[in-house]
Automatic annotation (TrEMBL):
Coiled coil: none annotated. Its cofactor is FAD. Gene3D superfamilies: FAD/NAD(P)-binding domain, HI0933 insert domain-like, Translation factors. The lineage of its organism: Eukaryota, Viridiplantae, Streptophyta, Embryophyta, Tracheophyta. Keywords: FAD, Flavoprotein. InterPro entries: BaiN-like, BaiN-like_dom_sf, FAD/NAD-bd_sf, RsdA/BaiN/AoA(So)-like_dom, RsdA/BaiN/AoA(So)_Rossmann. It comes from the Eukaryota. Residues 245-421 form the RsdA/BaiN/AoA(So)-like insert domain. The keyword Glycoprotein does not apply. It comes from Salix brachista. This is FAD-dependent oxidoreductase 2 FAD binding domain-containing protein. Residues 57-436 form the RsdA/BaiN/AoA(So)-like Rossmann fold-like domain.
Length: 529
């Protein structure tokens, strides 16, 4: 997603696996986090100290999915070396999300089918067992068990009771340190390939200095979200990429009168978007309607925002990009009343308050603010001294229609603090959702590309509890080196409200479970999984 947090890319070969990390200077670094000082300490450790039998997992990306997945893998396989590579500061998006509070997940979606509908890209695939393995309740339990007290707000968003993302960051980094996860920052994995022996050949670079390090990894987890780095690595490993476009953004509106209402909120409106000149998979430009959305809306100095607008932008992300972010937004400001009922209420108000100015009196049942009612009256063309008694029946009908079908010209997208969410990545058609166990047989067909894998489903046991690992497997499998790929850079993204982070926790947990369980059991041998 894109903030796409939640499908991680791991690959293993089926040939023999031997050495651990190869470093040009003979050292790797263990990054320790001190939550009291909020500082990192790098400790150089000679690779000569590492056993030749130790296996290495490299995680590309120190975001929510990468760190969560690294912790899970290390928890299941304590002897597995886990190295997270992050080009910037780890968990940087966690820090700024939710206005600095971190919207951890959403607590109002216990039904997985309803939860899946919160993902414009991915809602069909998520109707299966993806969230069964690690859903919102599991996420909340994990953080609570690790010392982060949480609260569910009225709209379902879940935040730490501290109202600070630092609580979440400190928890994750402290747990990673406790488990022995290594973290290197200010580095990028610039290339990835699969060697003849089935290991991953990774090239690490620093942008600020001339530095190149070659690393051989047994497992590779690409958890870099919507960054170009992750997309490039996925492409190098044989995947195609759906070009990313912004999702979760506000609308710029060409209406000077609306700009004067900056700060006005509407608890519940219904919106629909009509777009012209959309270029899809045809040579002709077409018209598109983005599905109805209902929820709170906010007027800003540049246009419209709020959860309902952000959800609409997510569902229409690709068509909006194609249209140049221009279209017509239709807003129903009184969605719980029918048009005929509104006409009747307005007529009753007219007769009851005939001698009052229309500018200062309106039906309270419409739940409108005085500032917005004045905007509607002026937009209808009524002057300030107009009395209700002098308002014609045609004007009554027109006001009711305006409140139910108010059109605004969208001229562009606004900037929004959550605009690091994008739509794009590896197409879902290139992965297959299956159940993965620890003792499965693979049938390698004598074809240039495998079209499918035959798997025997099974359960594995961890801490006395049976678990089924559900994940995404790559369909594009060269027969020379069989690879199982878990991708965090899929074309999947969620609407606002904690769903993108839940995507991250679920995907990280699933990938970490798969990697950790396989590494712990040592079941990946030549020709057999």
């Amino acid at each position: 997603m894109s903030f796409h947090l939640a499908r991680l890319s791991l690959q293993f070969g089926i040939s023999s696996r031997t050495a651990g990390t190869n470093s040009s200077n003979g050292y790797y670094y263990h990054l320790l986090f001190n939550p009291t000082k909020r500082k990192f300490t790098a400790t150089a450790i000679s690779t000569a100290q590492k056993s030749s039998k130790e296996e290495l997992l490299v995680v590309v990306g120190g975001g929510a999915a990468g760190v969560y997945g690294a912790i899970r893998a290390k928890t299941l396989a304590p002897n597995l070396d886990v190295l997270v590579i992050e080009k910037g500061m780890p968990l940087s998006k966690v820090k700024i999300s939710g206005g600095g509070r971190c919207n951890v997940t959403n607590g109002h979606c216990s039904d997985n089918k309803i939860l899946a509908e919160q993902y414009p890209r991915g809602h069909r695939e998520f109707r299966g067992s993806f969230f069964d393995m690690h859903g919102p309740a599991d996420t909340m339990s994990w953080f609570t068990d690790h010392g982060v007290a949480l609260k569910i707000e009225e709209d379902g968003r879940v935040f730490p009771t501290s109202n600070s993302s630092a609580s979440v960051i400190d928890c994750l980094l402290s747990e990673a340190t406790h488990r022995g996860v290594s973290l290197q920052t200010k580095k990028v994995v610039s290339s990835a390939s699969v060697g003849a022996g089935g290991k991953f050949l990774l090239k690490l670079e620093k942008r600020t200095v001339s530095f190149v390090e070659n690393v051989k990894a047994d497992y590779l987890l690409i958890a870099s979200g919507s960054s170009q780095q992750g997309h490039c690595l996925a492409a190098q490993l044989g995947h195609s990429i759906v070009d990313p476009v912004p999702s979760l953004f506000t609308f710029k509106i060409a209406d000077s009168g609306l700009a004067e209402l900056s700060g006005v909120t509407f608890p519940k409106v219904e919106v629909k978007l009509k777009l012209e000149n959309i270029l899809r998979n045809t040579p002709h430009l077409t018209q598109a309607y983005i599905k109805f959305q209902v929820g709170p809306m906010l007027v800003t100095h540049w246009g419209l925002s709020g959860p309902v607008i952000l959800r609409l932008s997510a569902w229409g992300a690709r068509d909006l990009s194609s249209s140049g972010y221009k279209g017509t937004l239709m807003v129903d400001f009184v969605p719980d009343l029918h048009l005929e009922d509104m006409k009747s209420i307005l007529n009753q108000h007219k007769h009851k308050y005939a001698k009052q100015k229309a500018l200062n009196s309106w039906p309270l049942g419409f739940s409108l603010t005085k500032r917005f009612w004045k905007y509607i009256v002026h937009r209808e063309g009524l002057i300030g001294d107009t009395l209700w008694a002098s308002i014609s029946n045609n004007s009554i009908v027109s006001i009711a229609h305006l409140l139910k079908h108010c059109a605004f010209e969208v001229t562009g997208k606004g900037q929004y603090k959550d605009e690091f969410v994008t739509a794009g990545g590896v197409p879902l058609s290139e992965v297959l959702s299956l159940s993965l166990s620890l003792s499965l047989s693979l049938l390698v067909l004598p074809k240039p590309q495998l079209d499918f894998l035959l798997l025997h489903e099974d359960l594995f046991e961890h801490n006395g509890k049976q678990e089924m690992c559900t994940t995404f497997l790559c369909r594009r499998v060269p027969t020379s080196v069989l690879k199982l790929i878990y991708l965090e850079v899929l074309n999947v993204d969620g609407v606002t409200g904690g769903f993108n982070f839940q995507n991250a926790w679920s995907g990280g947990y699933i990938a970490g479970t798969s990697i950790g369980a396989l590494a712990a059991e040592g079941t990946l041998e030549e020709g057999v999984l």
